[in-house]
Design goal:
445 residues; Rossmann fold; six-stranded antiparallel beta sheet; 25 strands; 24% helix; disordered N terminus; disordered C terminus
Length: 445
């Protein structure tokens, strides 16, 4: 990713004859004569690197989620004609934002008659005085064709960092195939009729999925940027507490915000539970979704990859069905593809080792364990990644390294506990997120 400074062109600095210095002899005072020079000096100062202004601001993702398709969504019968209020937890704050809606997997258009945004209160309420209408090309309603994502018009909005935001939508008809994120780990509220501006949805059905939203951006001062975290259920937050935002990426976002100086890094969680590198399953494979969920994310500078354990563990069922499964060479080759594609777009990419999972009898096998160790050795020693986050070392039992440490085991011997998620976030060296000292406009996203 390149950072460039913008300077005024020669034509932009050229004075009109009526403002030129040749008239000074006709001026009555020296102050009047110098007025054009003062204006010129102020114009130049506006372009000095380090002076924050609109010219060195750019869009950066503050929240995102990875969409997947659902042809028999559990809430489909309730969505049509209803108001859906969804809560998202942002990383970066800002004063101007835009929302990204998605009908990526729909086969028919998605029409919404209204979309509102507000700061969230408890239990699906909105904070007084914060409800705002979002517009799309100047209109309150929006029609999203099949396979398309649309951005809202920019909205002036005071968004604190690490805030909870409600996105409330209302539409009469929804596609038969939903575009959604199943594991939101956050309560959404679904109520019949149009209640876009209602402070509370008192008759709502509570659900734990996100529908038709997949990103929120803020206008941030350069050199702010985002880190995209691609992963499976570890990143999606399996076992984390609903509405408490204690996935490991949430802990990472709080660590980044706690650093001294201005917070300038957005954390975009693109995990899908059950996701694999090579084969579709619960959502498209990571190889298939890499361009959309990583390269195309707003203001991305770094990519972190946490994936591979499902490619190994699903061999047990594949054997029962007589199907092929991923080998070490397949998984290493897939990781290499991600590295090459990230570097081709000027991004830094960080790999992570695969934590142990012995005791998860539905997934573990002796040859799978051997493959995990071979893959971890490659991740640590190949030099292909720009950096390595060693989740294996962080979470394993030192006395029995094929098992998770008891304190970091949620109980299924595969997924981390809440303490394990904290440990994962602590394993990330914050010095990896290097930003240029000077300001400048990020080119690209």
């Amino acid at each position: 990713m390149r950072f460039t400074r913008k300077y005024p062109t020669a034509s932009a600095l050229r004075l009109h004859p009526s403002e030129g210095l040749h008239d000074c002899s006709q001026m009555n005072t020296l102050a009047t004569c110098l007025r054009p020079m003062v204006g010129l000096l102020l114009a130049l100062l506006a372009f000095v690197p380090g002076q924050a202004g609109e010219t060195d601001r750019h869009w950066v993702g503050t929240w995102a989620t990875a969409p997947r398709s659902e042809s028999n969504a559990p809430d489909q019968a309730l969505l049509a004609g209803a108001t859906l209020r969804q809560v998202v937890h942002v990383s970066l704050g800002g004063r101007k934002l835009r929302l990204r809606l998605t009908n990526l997997f729909g086969a028919t258009p998605l029409t919404l008659h209204g979309v509102h945004l507000a700061l969230a209160g408890p239990a699906g309420t909105i904070q007084p005085g914060t409800d705002r209408t979002l517009f799309f090309n100047g209109k309150e309603s929006v029609r999203i064709p099949p396979g398309v994502c649309l951005l809202s018009d920019p909205l002036d909005f005071e968004l604190p960092p690490l805030a909870d935001v409600t996105v409330t939508i209302h539409g009469k008809e929804v596609p038969a195939v939903q575009t959604m994120h199943h594991g939101s780990r956050t309560t959404s509220y679904l109520q019949p009729g149009n209640a876009l501006s209602a402070p509370a949805l008192r008759d709502a059905t509570k659900i734990a999925h996100w529908y038709f939203i997949d990103g929120l951006d803020v206008l941030a001062a350069a050199p702010a940027a985002a880190v995209v975290v691609l992963g499976d259920s570890f990143t999606d937050g399996r076992g984390s507490t609903t509405d408490q935002n204690n996935r490991w990426t949430d802990v990472l976002a709080r660590r980044l915000q706690a650093q001294s100086g201005p917070a300038r890094i957005g954390v975009l969680n693109q995990g899908i539970g059950g996701n694999r590198l090579l084969r579709d399953g619960l959502g498209p494979s990571l190889l298939a979704r890499f361009d959309r969920d990583a390269l195309a994310q707003t203001g991305v500078r770094w990519v972190m990859v946490q994936a591979g354990i499902n490619d190994i563990g699903t061999r047990i069922e594949a054997r029962k069905r007589g199907e092929a499964f991923a080998t070490v060479a397949d998984i290493v080759g897939a990781l290499g593809q991600l590295i090459t594609r990230a570097h081709a777009h000027g991004l830094r990419i960080f790999g992570s080792t695969l934590p142990p999972y012995a005791g998860a009898d539905f997934y573990w096998s002796a040859d799978g364990e051997a493959d995990r160790r071979h893959i971890n050795h490659w991740i640590r020693t190949s030099g292909r990644f720009d950096a390595v986050i060693d989740f294996d070392a962080a979470l394993r039992d030192p006395g029995n390294p094929s098992h998770l440490a008891a304190a970091f085991d949620c109980g299924d011997h595969l997924h981390p506990s809440l303490a394990g998620y904290v440990e994962m976030a602590r394993a990330v060296d914050l010095n990896l997120f290097d930003l240029p000292a000077e300001t400048g406009k990020v080119t690209g996203n």
